[in-house]
Amino acid sequence: MENKKELRNWLNAFELPHPLVIAGPCSAETESQVLNIAHQLKDTDATVLRAGIWKPRTRPGNFEGVGALGLKWLQKAKEETGMLTATEVANATHVRLALEHDVDVLWIGARSTVSPFIVQEIADALQGTDKIVLVKNPVNPDLPLWLGAIERLHSADIKKLGVIHRGFSTYEKTRYRNNPEWQIPIELQNRFPDLPLILDPSHIAGRRDIIFDLCQTALDLNYDGLMVETHFDPDNAWSDAKQQITPTRLVEIMDDLKIRKETDTEADYRNALNTLRTQIDVIDHQLIETLGKRMKVADKIGELKKAKNVAILQARRWNEILGKMILEGEQNQLSEEFVLRIFKAIHQESINHQEKIMSK
Ligand code: PEP
Ligand code: MN
């Protein structure tokens, strides 16, 4: 697939003065729940009503969705509010049922994008469709796998394509339910600047309080849309209760977000500059986190050395590290002088950490 301006046609056709907003509950629960939420969203910035009909659960025993019955509720919500509808499809039967019920936006979930078999089955079932099809990133941080899914749909002659960034699962517990790993969507955006990119802050956050910040970062990175889980009674939602927000909160968030509008060359310049600056901020944030992790490992070494009563400074090990890093630095276009300076500072901080431990 090559980048082409046409990739954005479907998005431009909405002629929105703000990013595309897809909102609605994690899961369709009852007819009145779907209709109630749709009516609360109708006069907001949300264009598309989302609701999961079939829920992919990591472990069995959780709410697995109401099934095809819920598609009728989405259809009714569309009739009553004029909103477009969106749901997740994970096999050819889901696709057939969703198309029969005139769902406008079909998305492939993170657990399906990991499987080329499933993606191909969905692509075949959707062959040539004029519906909008969005591909969530796979659960694992693998850009080629994500791109592969998009290519399969593109090869099936599906023209209205986009991607949803919902974060990546990690073994270590972080402040996120799914780590954003912003560098992955940034790289995808560099390769396909015209492929619409939508943020799903809900599944990245796993909680309500950081949804706004995630949305703002995405808009600063020039994302094209937001998909936010929204429920009139989030605490009592049947799935993902912790991360859903009310339609009222969504309106506040949209009011408070700084949205850039490209108008003239001066604005274009500032826009491009801001996007790059946000990329730098993301990387700086990762640098600090990585350094913090390195010091935690140094602390553990300090504890070992203390138990064994060994000296902190071990010159041979230090020289080995430096030699390796200078070489790796070269491969990354970093001067020897710079690598030396950085690593001396890092080494000094490690020593300070270990001294603290030794003196305890
Ligand atoms: C969802 O959107 O409710 C969902 C299950 O998302 P994901 O595939 O990103 O986990
Ligand atoms: Mn969910």
Explain what the structure shows.
The protein is an alpha/beta fold. It has two domains: 5-259, Aldolase class I (TIM Barrel, Alpha-Beta Barrel), CATH 3.20.20.70; 267-359, Chorismate mutase (Chorismate Mutase Domain, subunit A, Up-down Bundle). 51% of the residues lie in helices and 10% in strands. It is built from 14 helices and eight strands. The protein has an eight-stranded parallel beta barrel, surrounded by five helices. Strand 6 (161-165), helix 8 and strand 7 (197-199) form a beta-alpha-beta unit. Helix 4 runs parallel beside helix 6 and helix 6 (116-126) packs parallel to helix 7 (143-155). It is elongated, with a radius of gyration of 24 Å. The mean pLDDT is 94. The chain binds phosphoenolpyruvate and manganese (II) ion. Phosphoenolpyruvate binds at residues 26, 52, 56, 109-111, 136, 166, 203. The site of phosphoenolpyruvate (PEP) has 9 residues, from helix 5.
Summed up:
With 360 residues, this protein is of the alpha/beta class.
Which fold name fills CATH's third level, the topology of the largest domain? Answer: TIM Barrel
Total beta strand runs = 8
Pairing-aware structural class of the strands and helices?
A: alpha/beta
The shape is elongated
So, CATH architecture of the largest domain?
Alpha-Beta Barrel
What is the CATH superfamily classification of the largest domain? Aldolase class I
Count of alpha/pi helices? 14
* CATH class categorisation of the largest domain: Alpha Beta
Poorly predicted runs: none
* Count of domains: 2
The kinds of small molecule bound in this structure are:
phosphoenolpyruvate, manganese (II) ion
Estimated radius of gyration: 24 Å
Order of strands across the main sheet: 1-2-3-4-5-6-7-8
